[in-house]
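Appendix B, example 12.
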Amino acid sequence: MSIAQFKSIEEAAIAGVKSIAETCIKSRTVRRLIYTGTVFAASPLKDDGCGYKDYIDETCWTPFQNLHLPLTPFHKDYAYSKTLAERELLTSYGKDENGSGGFEVVSLVLGLVGGETPLSYLPGSVAVITSQLQDNEALYQSLKFLEDICGKCPIVHIDDVCEAHIFCAELPSINGRFLVANSYASSAEIANYYSQNYPEFNLKEKYLEGPNRAIKLASTKLIDNGFVYKYNLKKILDDSIRCARRTGDLSMS
């Protein structure tokens, strides 16, 4: 399947998840499909695009018809395609609320993934988390875009992401949409942590101020099923810096 055969990225994304799901059905051996999604599809913006809900959880979907945000073509295509693809998978192939129809589809809606990794290069998500320390405007705009979409920045450690996938694969039964993030911070809160704990980077003052919206992280579905997060925001940020230093992408001013 080549993206060139489709009219848009959105069409290609939907075709991709449909192809995977249909293959699972044809195999007659797959009873659970675990899909890795993104919080770019889980905005707490109100349906009319004016203001935010008081919370972010699994019931939130990004309202693109009334999305009044200054989106770059890349950000728009990414968020829109991921939203449509996830909706297609859950509505067309997953079991309903009563457990009928389809097969078990688990959608893990990931926050911005940080932490240290065994990779020899800096992962894109870690680059976004450390963008203020790098004074990288393009990466910082991705952080701000996430903040504008989600009210604040939902963040999770890569180790917790891996454990969440294993957890959902090993449970006797699980189905539906789960937000995978245990930290929810504004870009200014992230910058202030860096400024207070890593003064050697001489963080620019322009990063220290910004909106601090009164929106709560209200997702407990994964925890209610027995999952335990091991890494808090401090550890995520510290490990992200350690990763960026190791790969040579972050050096002191």
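The first strand starts at residue 32 and ends at 38. DSSP finds nine helices and eight strands in the chain.
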